[in-house]
Structures are given as structure tokens and as C-alpha cells.
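Morning, I've got a small favour to ask if you have a moment. I've been staring at a protein lately and its backbone has me curious. You're getting the sequence in one-letter code plus the fold written as C-alpha cells. I've dropped the whole record in just underneath, so have a look:
=====
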Amino acid sequence: MRFPTPLLQGRLVRRYKRFLADVDLDGALITAHVPNSGSMIGVDTPGSAVWLSRSDNPKRKLAHTLELVEALDDPEAPCLVGVNTSHPNGLVAAAIAAGTIPELAGYARLRREVKYGRNSRIDILLEDEARPPAYVEVKNVHLRRPAQGDGRAAEFPDCVTARGAKHLVEMAEMVRQGARAVMVYLVQRADCAYFRVAADIDPAYAAGLRLALESGVEAVCWSCRITPQAIELERPLPIHMD
């Protein structure tokens, strides 16, 4: 995915009320939309370099959107992190269409935002006459805690997610009905060696994922290469259920 227009570089002043951030943009203080409902641990540090997209839509209340943050976890190796949670579904859909994710390749049709379960929508539904449908749920991952364990893990979630736990139950039900169900954890950063659940942050989600996997739900994880010009899937990461 290439950004349609050049991103604007600024300096984060503060992120607040979940969806707002004050940014120093060439000496001017502007307020940007933050398309991320999580806690953004490690990528909300005041003073961090950030990159914003800008919309010319006159109906928008805020013209700027926070897209990338330079994580300062390791000052000697700063890492660009994608924080816009509206991108992963499209990134994964494009990767599936291109055959990049082997576990999800070869389906005849791909549909997005399809109703299923109890008043839910699946991010991606893959269909083919020759095999059962595949229900694909995409989760954005940007959490890395250098002081946690060996410091090399991408982790999800970064806050308690009752909605995420509900999705796991519904995915397991799809398996019971004879379909495939696949969790895709998309890591919008390139400095992680593997993926694990942040069980200390949300033990209910950790237990739910373990139960879902035991029920036949599948899980894959991919990290991304991030630049101010584009975001693209780069490599698969192993999943550790410890």
C-alpha cells in the first residue's frame, strides 16, 4: 500500500482522548485524528517523530491523520510503526489477492465486511466451490515491549479487548459449522522476531485464543516493512503460545 500523497513529518506533543493528538508541524501546533482505539503503549511518547496524512475533504473536522510514529524503544535503532488501524484489512486483502500469504491463497472470491455470527462482520470472507469458506479476522499489532521477556516479541492486544474475545468465540463457531477460520495478526513494524499474546494485559483474550486454537481456529502473523512512502507485508513471524 502506497500513501496516495506525501506524508508530513512532525513531532508528537501529546495523544489524548484516544482519537486526538497534538502535533508540532513546522512550528505550528495542529490537532490530528488518531485512528487507533488502543492504548498505543510505546508509540505515544511526546517528542517522537510522527508522519501525518492530510485530507482536503471539507467535511472532515480534522484534516490530518496520524499514520506513523518513530518508536524510541531502542534509541540506537529507531523503528517506524504504523498506528492507523484502518489499513490492515486492506493490506491483508491485497496480500491474499497477490498470493503472498500461502495459507490463504487460491480462493476464487474475496469479500470484505460480510455479516456473520451474532451481529458481527468478518473482515474478509474467502470463497471457492472446491473447498469450505474461510473466515479471516485481521488484528492490527504495534506493541513491542523491550523490557518484557527478551524484548523481541510483537504483542496483542495493548489493552483489554472484549470485542476481540467475542470474535474468537464466533470464529470457533464457524469451525464447528464446517468452515475455516483464520486469525491474521498484522504487525505494523519490522523489528520483532515473533508474536505472542500479551496475557498480562488481557488474560481473557489470551485464554480465548488458546481455546479457539484448540477448537480448530488457525492463526498466522506477518510483519510489515514501513517507510514514509508505503506499508507492505514483509515476512511471516512465528507465533509463540507461552
Remarks:
- The domain at 8-82 is CATH 2.40.50.580 (OB fold (Dihydrolipoamide Acetyltransferase, E2P)).
